[in-house]
Amino acid sequence: xxxxxxAIAGIALVAAGTAWGKDDLMQRARAAFKPVPATAPVLKDNxxxxxxxxxxxxxxxEPRLSASYLISCNTCHNVGLGGADLQExxxxxxxxxxxxNAPTVLNSVYNIAQFWDGRAPDLAAQAxxxxxxxxxxxxxxxQVVATLKSIPGxxxxxxxxxxxxxxxxxxxxxxxxxxxxxxxxxxxxxxFDKYLKGNDKALNAKEKEGLALFMGKGCGxxxxxxxxxxxxxxxxxxxxxxxxxxxxxxxxxxxxVTNTEADKYAYKAPSLRNIALTPxxxxxxxxxxxxxxxxxxxxxxxxxxxxDDETDKITAFLLTLNGRQPKxxxxxxxxxxxxxxxxxxx
Length: 346
Hints:
It contains 13 helices and two strands; from the N terminus they run H-H-H-H-H-H-H-H-H-H-E-H-E-H-H. The protein is mostly helical. A two-stranded antiparallel sheet has the order 1-2. Helix 12 (290-302) packs across helix 13. The longest helix is centred in the first third of the chain and has 15 residues, at 2-16. It is globular.
């Protein structure tokens, strides 16, 4: 049903054109997109407390969660770099390269699921993945727990963060704490958000033309809602299969999760929030210029060749999606003890 929607919506919107009046453009935009809220959402199964939030922040920056003591969550999801790492694919344990580009952590709480193929239902499940992946942090849950329990400062923090639990230092609780912190990494108040809230002057004429094209060509069918993406899975190559550099034959996307033929080469539509801050693009990270990525999407997903003027205007609109970046003070991490395991570099 989702895939039919993108095709139908794309055809209908292209047929409708982009000659919309000022009020009509804003009204249509409000129907398709929502501004990023000013405050972080309350997690249904992880409401937490101040101590859990502080613990999660520390663990997000904690390299001792990795076997080498060199890699933290922030390594690949750098909050100072738009929540990403500016790599085609991330560099992990022993200088290994991961198979896919690291998505931004910013606003990720609004995604339907995590990872390009949606294999993690929430941020807590996602937090466990890289810790255990051999090409990333290369660690094991029992080793992580042993390390955390050997650090007196963390033992105290876990007890405060998970009060009443007999054994609060667990791998699950580590993930819950990280999830709570990551949920606060939101970027409200972008120029486009201000436009959606009624400030017509928040976008200039070229940016509005880009918005009209973005909707008129059908881009919003996959990149809608609060996060302008992240809410559905779509085949990469709806109209025209990209080259093997952009869609390697060996990476079949969500098919590996569902084993459903229709999900071959399908991926979660990435959020376009702060997109200008997070090159390179696509799950392969092979495209470095945003304008080039726009052109690829026109041919691959919509079956149209966007001209230079159209790509310029759509790109100008996408630049208005940069929100207020979260200011995160780097935490001072607790010192280890004589029983803290030693790092493993090989």
